[in-house]
Structure prediction request, 561 residues.
Amino acid sequence: MTDTPSEKSERRSLNFIHAFVEEDLREGKNEGRIHTRFPPEPNGYLHIGHAKAIHIDFGTAEKYGGMCNLRFDDTNPVKEEVEYIDSIREDIHWLGYDWEGREFYASDYFGKLYDFAVDLIKRGLAYVDDQPSEVIASQKGTTSVPGLESPFRNRTVDENLDLFQRMNKGEFAEGTRVLRAKIDMAAPNMHMRDPVIYRIINRPHHRTGTAWKVYPMYDFAHGQSDYFEGITHSLCTLEFEVHRPLYDWFIDKLMTDKYRPRQIEFNRLNLTYTVMSKRKLLQMVNDRVVNGWDDPRMPTLSGLRRRGYTPGSIKNFINSIGYTKVEALNDYSLLEFAVREDLNKTAPRVMAVLDPLKVIITNYPEGKTEELQTVNNPEDESMGSRTIPFSRELYIERSDFMEDPPKKFFRLGPDREVRLKSAYIIKCEDFEKDAEGNVTELHCTYDPETKSGGANAGRKVKGTLHWVSTEHAVEAEIRLYDRLFTDPEPDGHKEREFMEFINPDSLNVIRGFVEPGLTSAKTLDHFQFQRLGYFNLDPDSKPENLVFNRTVALRDTWSNK
RNA sequence: UGACCCGUGGUGUAAUUGGCAACACAUCUGAUUUUGGUUCAGAAGAGUCCAGGUUCGAGCCCUGGCGGGUCAACCA
Prediction:
């Protein structure tokens, strides 16, 4: 069989997970079925790390004509809340995936799991341990010293059965008894040293209420849930690698036919300048470091969405970093590149001034307003054009003028010429300063012959500035978001708390001026404010108080050297 | 000092059966441009953790080191 070049390059780009999947397919495993699942615990909002999992879970199913379930891993009523379930559903949909009604809960299987536990007891493979957790922990041994067997390890089947049933009836207090799998206290893998599989919890569960007093542990619930749902490939992150022997052990005891799920682990997403642990994100929400899970500085999907990141850009980013078994730290600039690349094609170019400096065109008639034509996107004619008002008084960006400009500064300075985007070439004749020496006002003249698009517009000047007409511009609140953390690895310091690395300037709220017409923009529509970056209208923005969030800044490559 | 996993430019990935180490980001030039954006062209940057071995040929196979990660929750 010969491959076409495209087939070759397709196989070339296969990640190791898909290589495993194809191998299983070739070997005819599970009758050629591909079925994955995305299994979040509903104890927080989804973040960009989950996007990596979502893309491989749903993406693999999509690629091989299989299915992907959504399964809420809700085995611990102490930590989980209904509130999170809705946000998780919404975020998956936002990324462009659908579980087609196959929404399951680990708690759906509490009955089956209980029966399986009873079965293990009957087969002499599980026992009730009456010891407190500290004693069980101390008997576990260490990574280099074998563990000790519990004195309750060899109870009779009848006694175990009786005790386990009474555990579930609420006869015993939390922490007084657990059910353990009987495997091997001397196993080199700690997870095989008689792991706890059921514990008593006296708190109502968000779905099953008070029906159960005992709840299965992750290891006892996850693989079995996979099995019950017919999952063929259970994709998870690297830290579960050492759990795999236990996963397989339970499946061995449960298997009734040839079908068997397979766990494959990949590297989790780590981003520079970003904290991804749900525990820490929750702490930032609780400590009011940020204004909630969807604060635009948060790495949550809802935060990124509000900030203006598009689903497509996140998908491209995830694809570009790939899936391997190497613990990687991905550069934040790669994400920003993906956003700019995506937005560049779709975002109309509009004018805004963030830090205004007044300019008076001295030879322009007072009271006159011109409607100038400007294209929405110079690279995409189909996006059309619009008109913007020009008048005698304008704002330009304060940083676009230098009293004493260095050699390679192409913007405005005394006696310098510059083009106003879509308008005229102007020349700075004079400027005023206040008592502190700050420049307060520029007096310029314009050259009527150089009107943009006109017959004589061809004269070249080095710089082009964005501007707005003071009379027509709309004042808006503009939120400039920067990195929340100052250190590339706020999470990676053993001695120092990640909170010590919080950037006090991560949010700057300013009043700027935008060209008229943006007030009717739809929420989340993107704009490129010339040279300032990509912005979007905040979902909470009101017509009387426009709020724009900066999605990502453009790189201003001019440096004062 | 146990078990398992992993070491490829600064970062992240690729390299078919063992066959010239490739791509993207980042960095630096230059060109075009009514955005110092975009686009285009180019440069620099690793000889694949180390040492042996097998082979005509090793990033890939074997052996031994070294380095990093995960695991000893009644969390997931």
In short: The CA atoms of residues 132 and 176 of chain A lie 6 Å apart. The mean pLDDT of chain A is 93.
